[in-house]
Automatic annotation (TrEMBL):
<dbReference type="InterPro" id="IPR002110">
    <property type="entry name" value="Ankyrin_rpt"/>
</dbReference>
<feature type="transmembrane region" description="Helical">
    <location>
        <begin position="590"/>
        <end position="610"/>
    </location>
</feature>
<keyword id="KW-0812">Transmembrane</keyword>
<feature type="repeat" description="ANK">
    <location>
        <begin position="227"/>
        <end position="249"/>
    </location>
</feature>
<feature type="transmembrane region" description="Helical">
    <location>
        <begin position="705"/>
        <end position="730"/>
    </location>
</feature>
<dbReference type="InterPro" id="IPR036770">
    <property type="entry name" value="Ankyrin_rpt-contain_sf"/>
</dbReference>
<dbReference type="Pfam" id="PF14223">
    <property type="entry name" value="Retrotran_gag_2"/>
</dbReference>
<feature type="transmembrane region" description="Helical">
    <location>
        <begin position="673"/>
        <end position="699"/>
    </location>
</feature>
<dbReference type="InterPro" id="IPR026961">
    <property type="entry name" value="PGG_dom"/>
</dbReference>
<feature type="domain" description="PGG">
    <location>
        <begin position="586"/>
        <end position="697"/>
    </location>
</feature>
<keyword id="KW-0472">Membrane</keyword>
<feature type="transmembrane region" description="Helical">
    <location>
        <begin position="366"/>
        <end position="382"/>
    </location>
</feature>
<keyword id="KW-0040">ANK repeat</keyword>
<dbReference type="GO" id="GO:0016020">
    <property type="term" value="C:membrane"/>
</dbReference>
<protein>
    <recommendedName>
        <fullName>PGG domain-containing protein</fullName>
    </recommendedName>
</protein>
<feature type="transmembrane region" description="Helical">
    <location>
        <begin position="630"/>
        <end position="653"/>
    </location>
</feature>
<dbReference type="Pfam" id="PF00023">
    <property type="entry name" value="Ank"/>
</dbReference>
């Protein structure tokens, strides 16, 4: 068989050189392991004594050695001459990865006698590496180098100088090796040259970073990234407190004020990340960083509250000079106030307003005042909090202190604080001129409050300046009345209506000749509709809105045409086609599901009436337990369940066969659904009562203890049905038979008195 020429075999992708040993080692180890030769190389398969085993071992050793030599580059092969062991070759290559100096190095030294006229004598000192030792980047000159030809005792000083000079050469060699291993490039920009430093610092590898800094001290202050970050920026990003502390020892205080190209000093990175301990050591080194500003003009305190880092904010708030929040000096005070509102730290916002009252009407860098932000955030006020029935009860009582509802207590405290904050801000707005109101976005805040249904902000602004009620949009001339109807905000609409001149306000038209009833006919945003469960109930609420607004406009406006030639009724029909269809589908699907359950109950209860528990007397046909209370309960429950389920079937069937006109969604369809759901609930409850009575009859003389658990288990389906469907049932009842959506303005009138 022909012998394979190993020189032509490709073992690794890249032959071994002086700079790729680590990659080569991985490839070779995998290759030798696949050939089952790795044991020869790492020494686990030692040379055997037995002849046959020795021959086999030698063959495998030659294969491994040949593979190693074949994978070496031209400059590495000479180092393996005379090596006949694969393990020895592997170890030799591994040892060569520590940098070596040449086998013999000569240094010429000129020695000058005391006589100035004497000719300098040149002597040569030769140094060579110690036997079996390498000069590593971590070795000292004295340990690794042995001076050989020291010719004269009188030249001891000269020899000492040579040793020092040679030691410097070795140190430079070590630096060169470290630079080479780390990919250092002297001819590249700083952000490329110091990339190894950036990597080491971001990983928190201070040992490597320190070596690079010692070799290149300029890296301490250089821009080591393309973004202009310094070494301290990178250390702060790592989040390693020990690395930051070690680096700060090498830096002067002013280095902490260095900014990146984005205008951020290291303290800003710490403030945004919430690394409080890192911020503390930087402030201790240089407290001027508390006043430094980024590209937006923000100080670190503002950054911490904008990023909602509570612990960091508390620290910076305790050490930052409060004059930095003065609205006369910068926008930091306004930004701080808005940040506190966003973070729902209303107590902090009140403290800032107490210190600088002008912050109430100041705008931040982006032109946003505090009142505008409050108008946007309706959910931070009581009217915007969506509580369930029990939550509302506990919120309005003292039960908030009970464990488990502590969050309600905290929310109630925040509501008190934000209402106090609103009053302070609006008291300042009451003294503003019309021009100041416009520039301060107060008119815009009024429109935003009307759109979001933020009745607290709306009322306080009105109390501060009643003329704000005449606010309208500049572009379309929409009034607050239009906005309230368009956004389906009954609280705002009721409040405006309670202020008088309702009929006059209802006559106003916008630029497209849309009157108030046109806006009632327009479909609102889906987010507003989603507050109501079920497309059918959404359609019902839309019809209620249209009819209520129709009551307050003059008759001529009911047929008024807009610029598109449409009456309000036509606008309503056109824009509610899809919602009407969705409501029909929702009603039919609900009726189908409920009718199926009702039919099953009716079938079972009808059969149960003719198969009484305990059996009948064969001669008279009279049930044996006819006169027992349990039998009476069974018969009554069975009859109730049967009649109720039949009623439910009829109601749900009528829903399936309805015509589904617009007006049907107002009363007809919801009434049928209410009756059907109520009848279904009664039938299920009666069925479980009949089942319990049956078990009592059957087990009356044997397992009497089973009555209680059976009764409890029988109540489980009834309770579950009630819990799951009661919210929907209650919504339908209140929406259909409730007091209406335009009756709550009396509450607002009483509050204002």
């Amino acid at each position: 068989m022909a012998e394979t020429d190993l020189s032509e075999v490709v073992i690794v992708d890249e032959p071994l050189t002086s700079s790729n040993y680590e990659n080569w080692k991985v490839y070779m180890k995998n290759y030798l392991s696949n050939l089952n030769l790795w044991g020869i190389v790492n020494g686990t398969e030692s040379k055997p004594d037995e002849v046959n085993e020795y021959n086999t071992w030698m063959t495998r050793n030659e294969m491994a050695l040949s593979a190693i030599k074949t994978s070496c580059g031209p400059k590495m092969v000479p180092h393996l001459h005379g090596v006949d062991s694969a393990k020895e070759a592997w170890d030799q290559l591994a040892s060569m990865q520590s940098p070596e100096i040449t086998q013999e190095t000569s240094v010429a030294l000129e020695i000058q006698d005391d006589d100035d006229d004497a000719v300098p004598e040149t002597q040569v000192f030769t140094c060579q590496k110690s036997p079996n030792r390498n000069v590593s980047s971590n070795s000292s000159f004295g340990e690794q180098m042995i001076p050989l030809d020291l010719y004269d005792e009188d030249t001891s000083d000269a020899v000492s100088e040579v040793e020092e000079s040679f030691a410097d050469a070795v140190i430079r060699l070590q630096k060169t090796v470290r630079d080479r291993n780390s990919g250092w490039c002297d001819d590249k920009p700083d952000y490329i040259r110091f990339r190894p430093l950036y990597k080491a610092l971001t990983k928190g590898d201070w040992r490597t970073a320190k070596e690079i800094i010692e070799d290149h001290p300029e890296g301490l202050r250089a821009n080591i990234t393309s973004r202009g970050d310094t070494a301290l920026h990178a250390a702060v990003v790592s989040g390693k407190l020990s690395t930051v502390k070690a680096l700060l020892k090498l830096l002067p205080p002013e280095a902490l004020e260095a900014k990146s190209s984005s205008g951020d000093a290291p303290i800003f990175l710490s403030a945004a990340d919430g690394s409080t301990e890192i911020a503390k050591v930087m402030v201790k080194k240089n407290n001027r960083v508390l006043r430094i500003k980024n590209q937006h003009g923000f100080i670190p305190l503002v950054i911490s509250i904008l990023y909602e880092k509570e612990e960091m904010f508390c620290y910076l708030y305790s050490v930052t000079p409060m004059e930095e929040l003065d609205p006369e000096k910068s926008k930091n005070g306004a930004s701080f106030l808005l940040g506190a509102i966003n973070a729902e730290m209303f107590d902090v916002a009140l403290e800032a307003l107490e210190l600088y009252p002008k912050l109430a009407i100041s705008k931040d860098k982006f032109g946003i005042p505090a009142i505008f932000l409050l108008a946007l955030k309706s959910y931070i006020f009581p009217s915007g909090s969506r509580f369930g029935f029990w939550q509302r009860c506990m919120y309005s009582s003292c039960l908030c202190v009970i464990p488990g509802v502590k969050d309600l207590q905290e929310k109630k405290i925040k509501h008190v604080q934000v209402l106090e904050l609103l009053k302070v801000i609006c008291s300042a707005i009451g003294h503003m001129t019309d021009e100041e109101l416009k520039n301060g976005k107060v008119y815009d805040s009024m429109l935003v409050a009307a759109t979001n249904g933020n009745i607290e902000v709306f009322m306080e602004l009105f109390n501060a300046n009643p003329s704000l009620l005449y606010t309208s949009t500049t572009a379309s001339r929409k009034t607050l009345y239009h906005q309230a109807v368009m956004s389906r905000q009954e609280n705002i609409f009721n409040f405006i209506s309670s202020m008088g001149q309702r009929d006059i306000r209802a006559t106003h038209k916008d630029n497209s000749d849309n009157n108030l009833l046109h806006y009632a006919g327009m479909l609102p945003l889906s987010s507003l509709l989603d507050r109501i469960s079920g497309a059918a109930l959404q359609m019902q609420r839309e019809i209620q809105w249209f009819q209520e607004v129709e009551k307050i406009v003059q008759p001529k406006y009911k047929e008024s045409l807009n610029k598109d030639g449409e009456t309000p009724a036509e606008v309503f029909t056109e824009q509610h086609k899809a919602l009407k269809k969705d409501g029909e589908v929702w009603m039919k699907e609900t009726a189908n599901a409920c009718m199926l359950v009702s039919a099953l109950i009716a079938t079972v209860m009808f059969a149960a009436a003719f198969t009484v528990p305990g059996g009948n007397d064969q001669s008279t046909g009279t049930p044996f337990f006819l006169k027992t209370p349990a039998f009476t309960i069974f018969i009554v429950s069975d009859a109730i369940s049967l009649f109720a389920s039949c009623t439910a079937i009829l109601m749900f069937f009528s829903i399936l066969t309805a015509r589904y006109a617009e007006q049907d969604f107002l009363k007809s369809l919801p009434q049928r659904l209410i009756i059907g759901l109520a009848a279904l609930f009664i039938s299920i409850a009666a069925m479980m009562a009949a089942f319990g009575a049956t078990l009592v009859i059957v087990l009356h003389n044997s397992i009497t203890w089973a009555y209680i658990p059976v009764t409890l288990l029988a109540s489980v389906p009834v309770v579950l049905f009630g819990l799951l469907l009661f919210p929907l049932f209650l919504d339908i009842v209140l929406s259909t038979y409730g007091t209406g959506i335009f009756t709550w303005h009396k509450v607002y009138l009483n509050n204002n008195e």
